[in-house]
Design goal:
By secondary structure, the protein is an alpha/beta fold. Among the domains are: 47 residues, no CATH class; 176 residues, 2-Layer Sandwich (Nucleotidyltransferase, domain 5), CATH 3.30.420.10. The protein is built from 12 helices and 5 strands. The protein has a 5-stranded mixed beta sheet with strand order 3-2-1-4-5, with helices on both faces. Strand 2 and strand 3 form a beta hairpin. Helix 2 packs across helix 3 and helix 5 crosses helix 6. The longest helix has 17 residues. The two termini are 49 Å apart. The mean pLDDT is 88. One of its GO terms (biological process) is DNA integration. This is IS481 family transposase. It comes from Glutamicibacter soli. GO terms for molecular function: nucleic acid binding.
Length: 319
């Protein structure tokens, strides 16, 4: 495609060709007038004689034939592996003995979307959405996390020593689990989390009352809450905690992707806090959590928000 300020735009080429074909200018005179080579002037004059003004536009640079193009049978095998097994270019290339860049070109030529844009279970393209204002939808979920035994677990000490610490507790009891109750705003990704002892209905109801108060203190009015179909969320206690002003929506069974924003928060939380470094005790890890949550809400750039922190999307939150 020609530059809009170039001398030989389609209009300029037409003028050049008409000077030669219709007005009888010589190639040298026309080339000097339009500041191009005589070969260029001859090319546009020849094309004008053959196709008229329609031939003055840019043509595709794609070759008419590609003798070294991947054969159709191989292309079909590549597409079949992508659709049926949802493999990436590298894995398909190693399986078929083809360079991954060749597989990538074939997938691009047939319009195959990236694996990150697809649902791994069904292969369907993921439909991304975002509510318009903070509070329009709050995603709520519980993440079950194993507690760290005193003295450190297997990440800090290795499998053998970590297993001994795990069983050498009071009355030979295991450390058990911590239940992280999370609430994430759909629009801003602002998160509120508490580490609680269980996932019973009374615990979930109490967590929501405190989470709702937290969002209200930031000027966010909650209108909808999305949860999975856990027993605690189907209880009357949780329904009463929501009240009549908040609409409760639940995901389809076995479809955690519907609650994807809080699921992605769970993954980020594990990668950047829970498993970011080896902790010696559970108390040490719990003490580090609030600092990480403040960093997530106020300073950590979110890729879905184009580098903004969640707090940047809440009106007047930063004062």
């Amino acid at each position: 495609m020609s530059h809009p300020n170039a001398t030989l735009t389609p209009k300029g080429r037409t003028l050049l060709a008409r000077c030669i074909v219709e007005d009888g200018w010589s190639l040298r005179r026309a080339a000097e007038r339009f500041q191009v080579s005589t070969g260029t002037a001859n090319r546009w004059a020849t094309r004008y004689r053959e196709h008229g003004a329609a031939g003055m536009h840019d043509r595709s640079s794609q070759p008419h034939t590609s003798p070294h193009r991947t054969c159709t049978r191989t292309e079909r095998r590549i597409i079949a592996l992508r659709v049926n097994r949802r493999w990436g270019p590298a894995r398909i290339g190693y399986h078929l003995g083809i360079h991954p860049s060749t597989v990538h070109k074939v997938l691009s030529r047939y319009g195959c979307s990236r694996l990150s844009f697809q649902d791994r279970a069904t292969g369907r393209r993921i439909r991304r959405y975002e509510h318009k204002a903070p509070g329009d939808m709050i995603h709520v979920d519980i993440k079950k996390l194993g507690r760290i035994p005193d003295g450190g677990g297997h990440q800090a000490l290795g499998r053998a020593a970590g297993k001994r610490n795990k069983t050498r507790t009071e009355a030979n009891r295991r450390p058990g689990y911590a239940y992280l109750h999370n609430a994430v705003d759909d629009h801003s990704r602002l998160a509120y989390t508490e580490t609680l002892k269980d996932e019973k209905k009374e615990t979930a109801a109490g967590f929501w009352e405190r989470a709702n108060a937290y969002f209200a203190s930031l000027g966010i009015t909650v209108r909808q809450v999305l949860t999975d179909n856990g027993a605690c969320y189907r209880s009357h206690a949780f329904r009463d905690a929501l009240g009549v002003a908040v609409k409760h929506r639940r995901t389809r069974p076995y479809r955690p992707q519907t609650n994807g924003k809080v699921e992605r928060f769970n993954r980020t939380m594990l990668e950047e806090w829970a498993y970011a470094r080896p902790y010696r005790t559970e108390a040490e890890r719990v003490a580090a959590f609030q600092g990480w949550l403040d960093y997530y809400n106020y300073r950590r750039g979110h890729t879905a928000l184009k580098g903004l922190a969640p707090a940047d999307r809440v009106l007047n939150l930063r004062g």
